[in-house]
Automatic annotation (TrEMBL):
Compartmental location: Mitochondrion membrane
UniProt catalytic activity: a ubiquinone + NADH + 5 H(+)(in) = a ubiquinol + NAD(+) + 4 H(+)(out)
Gene Ontology CC annotations of this record: mitochondrial membrane
Function recorded in the entry: Core subunit of the mitochondrial membrane respiratory chain NADH dehydrogenase (Complex I) which catalyzes electron transfer from NADH through the respiratory chain, using ubiquinone as an electron acceptor. Essential for the catalytic activity and assembly of complex I.
Record's protein name: NADH-ubiquinone oxidoreductase chain 4
A molecular function GO annotation: NADH dehydrogenase (ubiquinone) activity
The NADH:quinone oxidoreductase/Mrp antiporter transmembrane domain, residue ranges: 111-390
PANTHER family in the cross-refs: NADH-UBIQUINONE OXIDOREDUCTASE CHAIN 4
EC numbers on record: 7.1.1.2
Spans through the membrane: 32-51, 63-81, 93-121, 142-166, 186-211, 223-246, 252-274, 303-325, 346-366, 386-410, 431-450
Family named by the database record: Belongs to the complex I subunit 4 family.
Amino acid sequence: MITLLFLILSSIIIILLSPGNRVWPNSIFWSSLIPIITIILIPPLSSLTNISWGLTTDTISTPLIYLSAWLIPVSILASGGHLSNNSFLNQKIFIVLIFIILFFLVITFTANNFIALFLGFEGTLIPTLFLITNWGAQQERIEAGLFFVFYTLISSLPLFIGLLYLNSISYNISIFYLKTSFLGNLNPTIAFCCMVAFLVKVPIFSLHIWLPKAHVEAPVAGSMILAAILLKMGGYGFTRLIVLFFDPFNNHISNILVPFCIWGGLLTSLICLTQTDLKSLIAYSSVSHMSFMVAGISTLSNWAIAGGLIIMIAHGVVSSALFCIANTFYERTSTRNLFINRSTKIIFAITPSLWLIFACANMGLPPLPNAIGEIITVTAIAANNIFNYLPTLIGIVTTGIFSLFMFLAINSGNHQKWSNISSNMNEREHNVIATHLLPLIVLILSPNLITPWPV
């Protein structure tokens, strides 16, 4: 794992020292090398592995590391059109910020103790803020950046204090070896305050205000990384903490959090039906999916945690692809309005088919991996409390409705004469979409690659 971190740092140095005409080729080459090295260093389905320097991987963190290593070069490739009018210096800074985010992501997913996890969790804040505020498309990007920082920092303070308290009572805050006997009588308020930081990052309904703003204003790479990877940091941290706080969570918090997340996911699905901004719709879709994922994991069953991990990985690939396709419209029309961009099937030859594939994946249509995760999660929720089954089912159905609404709004109706879409997708954009289709195909054929244990 140290080798992977050194590779990321070496890539940053090489990009900074590259002449202007070599920035883009070097960025693509070194970022594409990272997923290859990751697969070599961390075999799939590897169990708990102590590597070095307090960095550890297991069957929960390994798929998330793969997701991060795979989508970082894809996000750089997707930014080619956005960066074409930037100076070489700005291109260097943009790409270096993405590599810095990857560096902290690897630390977060491999940390062996909660302090290192917290540092990696917070380390992604500043680079992401710069991506939103410096390369956002509109003036509202400053407000979006402030919301992002405010929510993250305010929610992280109780987590930091809680971790210091845990260290004082147990003298060991290892993720895997912390003595949970010290935490049996822990005040549930303290446990919940520690979890708020991750619930904000996921985010669940009512803590999601920052997310649509950040997504709408961020450049395409920022939206891809935010939706596909950074939100999964919240899910990963939440999964680790509920295992640690099992007794107070199971006795007090779970009975409140599960129905709250279910109804929140349902309400967010209904909000999606009212959206006309394409990126905003995809952002609210993420809130809905993540709310159901948190509700499932909160049932504290191995079955639910496996389903939650599948949803996180599948949603990461699908949401990133949706933002990529949405960006192809925005680069040509300078608008994200669903009805202005309608009937693009007349101009784009293959794009409607791509929309259909990823819309079906977003709604959880078998045999796509999202369907497997949702079936497992819904089953776990129903087994926990049958009264939660109906709102969960309605929420899942509503997810399918707004996914179809998104597809039909863009690919149906008559083409507007005043629309200025005049060019099909180029080779770079086709390559970006292909790199999203490949992991979906792999997960359809081998879904066991992202399950922490047999389900």
